[in-house]
Amino acid sequence: MSGDLGTAEIHAEPAEAVQIPLQRAGAAPDGALDTRTLSRSLFVRLAALEPGSTEHTYVRDTLIELNLPLVRYASARFRSRNEPMEDIVQVGTIGLIKAIDRFDPERGVEFPTFAMPTVVGEIKRFFRDTSWSVRVPRRLQELRLALTKAGDELAQRLDRSPTVAELAVCLGVSEEDVVEGLAVGNAYTASSLDSSPSEEDGEGPLAERLGYEDLALEGVEYRESLKPLLAKLPPRERRIIMLRFFGNLTQSQIGDEIGISQMHVSRLLTKTLTQLREGLTAEG
User: Fold this and answer.
1) H/E segment holding residue 67
2) How far is CA 155 from CA 148, 159, 183, 225, in A?
3) Which of 122, 247, 253, 270 is deepest in the core (most CB within 10 A)?
């Protein structure tokens, strides 16, 4: 590249050279051309080249490399996110390429001004699509964002938390959609099962604090073990058991139902329960 000649030579191939006019190019203190001025000249040249040609590809790649500092500047805004900076820069570069392909130098807009929204938008889209712990449809992601915004606005206006019906009216969606959108928020973040507890949660990792002891589980085992034993009982004794323990009838009510005395019901219950208990013990 020579400042005296007023042109810059960019070698696409060893035997070829792309002449780029730099009549308005200003020189930086170290002799290098100003990045914006060079980019402007490259865009003018790019517009005159046939897409897909060797020269077009080389000038386009040069523009990408020349404007990578713009991507790094935009990516620095997201440094606090829990993603490697290399990945953020890579995503931002995709936005830069899209901006280069759409840029029209004749509009009189500086390329950095035109490209920055596209680069930042591509990075934000990346976080929107990958930050969820559980992948959910885009429609529900956008609905959750809309619900969050509408909820804040309604809370300020009503001085209380809005209801599902109020959110539905505000967004013009059904109440079922609102409930679904609110439930989706549980998929945004996930906690490790080995995470340490807070002071309010007690001791032990999260895996030891999830769930509770279901006392009915033991009853399931007993009921399943009793089924074959109940099936072997005579019809009258089986009916007494069903009325007493599943119908919650008293012995007197059972006697009236079957047509025997309360004392007789008591003796039959004692005999049958002993038989069932011995059957369970024998199976154990």
Assistant:
1) none
2) 11, 5, 19, 55
3) 122
Q: Report whether 131 contacts 190 (CB < 8 A).
A: no
User: What span, in angstroms and rounded, lies between the C-alpha atoms of 181 and 276?
Assistant: 52
Does one domain contain both 25 and 114? yes
Rounded CA gap, 154 and 156, in Å?
5
163 secondary structure, DSSP code = P
Q: What is the C-alpha to C-alpha distance for residues 54 and 67, in angstroms, rounded to an integer?
A: 20
- Point out the domain boundary residue: 110, 130, 150: 130
Cβ proximity of 164 and 172 under 8 Å: no
> Which of 202-228 are b and which e, b meaning 16 or more Cβ less than 10 Å from the residue's Cβ?
eeeeeeeeeeeeeeeeeeeeeeeeeee
Domain containing 257 equals 216-283
The torsion angle over the Cα atoms of residues 11, 41, 55 and 111, rounded to 10 degrees, is: 120
Residues 111 and 46 in one domain: yes
**What is the per-residue pLDDT for 191?**
56
Residue 2 forms part of a structural domain: no
Q: Longest C-alpha distance within the chain, in Å?
A: 123
Task: Quick: pLDDT tens for 195-243.
Answer: 565 555 556 665 666 666 666 666 777 778 888 888 889 999 999 998 9
176 and 225 co-located in one domain = no
Intra-chain end-to-end CA distance of the chain, in Å = 93
Cα four-point dihedral sign 223, 226, 228, 232: negative
